[in-house]
Amino acid sequence: MNESISEINISYRPNHKNKSLGSIRSSSDAYRVLKELYNQDLICAREEFIILYLNNGGRILGYFKAFTGGISSVTCDMKIILGVGLKSLATSVILSHNHPSGNLKPSSSDLNLTKRVAKGCKVMDIHLFDHLILSDEGYFSFADEGLI
Q1: What is the pLDDT of residue 51?
Q2: How far apart are the C-alpha atoms of 17 and 47, rounded to whole Å?
Q3: How far apart are CA 64 and CA 81, in angstroms?
């Protein structure tokens, strides 16, 4: 074996014991789970990007706190979003981020990111189930509004 080449290891350890989360069937199901994952002390202070990864039955495989931003934006890397999805053998993903301002209307950056991720997911045969924007008072669903 050539010692100058890095070995890549892949592992997958699902937590079958945590069945209490149930399955995600709607944006309200996703919101119920996601609002618990956001730090309520910081939801009005800075943007975060959290992704839920689901299996074929809509059961949550896990979540990934992918990116943290500033007051008015967060930078997302599609390779990381899809890479974690592939590694976890997810068949669906739900994107989410918060708007500290409380304004739930998607920005042009939000719309562009969602379109780019949807295209990438399609290539990888992963379904983009939804993209939620959260605030301390509610949520906006791209799927419910026909934007996915």
Answers
A1: 95
A2: 31
A3: 9
